[in-house]
Design a protein that fits this description.
With 186 residues, this protein is of the alpha+beta class. It has helices at 3-20, 44-52, 62-71, 88-100, 108-114, 167-170; strands at residues 81-82, 85-86, 116-117, 128-131, 140-144, 149-154, 158-163, 173-178. A six-stranded antiparallel beta sheet has the order 3-8-4-5-6-7, covered by helices on one side. Strands 1-2 form a two-stranded antiparallel sheet.
Length: 186
Amino acid sequence: MNYIGSRKIFICAICSLVLLGSCNSQKFATHSSKASGIKFSGTIKEKYAATLGVSEKQITNEKLYNFIDNWIGVPHRSGGMDKRGIDCSGFTSILQKEVYNQWVPRVARQMAEQVKRKYEDELKEGDLIFFDFDGQKFSHVGVYLINNKFVHTSTSKGVIISDLKDPWYYKYFSRAGSVNPFATKN
């Protein structure tokens, strides 16, 4: 095969991988005690204060952390919307609806278009954070927690908590913002 033919096949293969790689996050930083297999016998506040590296009094939204605790470790499944498997935008949309009573679109790119943009030092619990994996704009979404931590669905580890300042995640970080309460369903 000649160089041009090989190059076309290579480019087609790369394009196929990009199209199939939505919500793709290969590296992970697991901080959940359940996901990492560590037994934890405290309250939900104690557990997530330790996981997030904050004091217990900073864990104020027990509904959020109970929700996360029920989903942590659920495997990634593209298009999934239940505990058999879920993708990043599915997890984010369910979390926003059940915890914050907010509707968000099902697709990460559409979510990014509807958030009220914020700088990272303005982030509050429940804000959405977006990443550009595999050269795709807003191909991954997570929910900001506290202390630079966010919850999301990793393709390799399922629902986990990671650190936004982890150099691997940070190099793909592209946008953040709060859910627009005036966004309408399409």
